[in-house]
Design a protein that fits this description.
alpha/beta, 2 domains, 15 helices, globular, single chain, 11 strands, Diaminopimelate Epimerase, Chain A, domain 1
């Protein structure tokens, strides 16, 4: 396939909105080989390793942990790649180094299949998170880690958890970084700097982000804010397109906005909230979806769990298991995620039925008493 067919720089905004990024079209085998090579090189002689989600929250955790171990190596992985990262550590890390796992929550036992090997190899293993944990998986993790600290998902972000758990003094500007990161990660929207942090983490290299926030905290330097302003021209246009194509569904007394496109899901969710929705779903061209809640809907993680995902009450993610071959993806792009949207709406209905049954059961118990 010619490179120009997937070159984002030559696509119109409309097509950019409807299609996945060029990285999607790289075979997994190629991406996995490159990922393993980078991990092997990063772990060579590393004094410590941090496995973290490379969003603003996960990267803030790394910035904080480098106050404890300045040369700690970062392995940036998403929630679906926890097992892969742990496998790299079990095979390539130096024996006797500390391991930190941040802003990641296992969804299945397969996610932690290498944890025992990591625990045997490491001097200590610390797991810091703020998502909704399955009790049985948490107990399995506790068998192998030095400590697991999980904050309340509607009160703390993972950076908060790390900041209060470190056995060292946290500089004021990094303590503030955790607070501002929480503002975006929990979608509080009270500090305008939090959007800057989230966007910068998305658009720049993880190591560059960590270096900048370690020096400046949440107050990003002028050259970074100028960079963000330039990037946001396209970002705002993609948000507008996603909001314009949104459909509204009534699920009992929940109003759910559902849309499709390559866009910033949090801003799209906020725009739909302002239009009166209780929850928002953004289906991405790559096949995954983001689910965002509000004070009126705090069951995003329950919906995601029914569609091959997880998260916490007001923010979750999933990838419906509906893609068997490239024809399914072609249908996904040309129908703007029709099958994925339908599957997720059905999951909302399932959660609504369960919530109503739970209410009926509780009312029955009260009546008997």
């Amino acid at each position: 396939m010619d490179d120009w067919l997937i070159d984002d720089d030559r696509l119109s905004l409309t097509r950019t909105s409807l299609l996945p990024g060029e990285g999607f079209f790289r075979p997994d085998s190629v991406a996995e080989a490159e990922q393993e090579r980078k991990a092997r090189e990063a772990l060579d002689d590393a004094p410590a390793v941090v496995v973290a989600d490379p969003d603003a929250d996960g990267l803030a955790c790394v910035a904080l942990l480098r106050e404890l171990v300045a040369e700690a190596t970062l392995l940036p992985v998403g929630p679906r790649d926890i097992a892969t990262a742990l496998g790299y550590i079990a095979e390539y890390a130096e024996p006797g180094i500390p391991v930190f796992i941040c802003d990641l929550c296992p969804d299945a036992e397969t996610d932690i299949e290498h944890l025992e090997l990591v625990a045997d190899r490491a001097s200590e293993v610390h797991w810091f998170d703020h998502h909704q944990w399955d009790a049985d998986l948490g107990a399995r993790v506790d068998e192998h880690v030095t400590r697991r600290v999980v904050g309340e998902s509607d009160e703390e972000c993972s950076a908060d958890v790390v900041a209060r758990s470190l056995d060292t003094d946290v500089p004021d500007h990094l303590a503030e970084l955790a607070v501002v990161t929480r503002d975006h990660d929990l979608w509080l929207r009270e500090d305008p700097r939090s959007d800057d942090l989230a966007d910068y983490a998305y658009w720049t290299d993880p190591e560059e982000y960590i270096e900048v926030v370690r020096e400046h905290g949440a107050d990003l330097p002028a050259e970074v804010t100028e960079f963000l302003a330039e990037q946001r021209v396209e970002k705002e246009a993609l948000i507008e397109r996603a909001v314009d194509r949104a459909e509204i569904h009534e699920v009992g007394d929940w109003t759910v906005g559902v849309t499709y496109g390559r866009c910033s899901q949090n801003e799209v969710a906020e725009a739909l909230r302002q239009q009166g929705t209780d929850a928002a779903v953004v289906v991405k061209p790559a096949g995954s979806a983001s689910i965002r809640g509000t004070d009126e809907f705090e069951r995003a993680h329950e919906v995601a769990a029914k569609v091959n995902g997880g998260g916490h009450p007001k923010a979750a993610g999933c990838k419906p298991d509906i893609y068997d071959d490239m024809l399914d993806y072609a249908n996904h792009w040309t129908t703007r995620g029709a099958v994925a949207r339908q599957v997720i709406i059905e999951a909302f209905h399932d959660v609504k039925r369960e919530a109503e049954a739970e209410t009926d059961e509780n009312e029955g118990v009260e009546t008997e008493q």
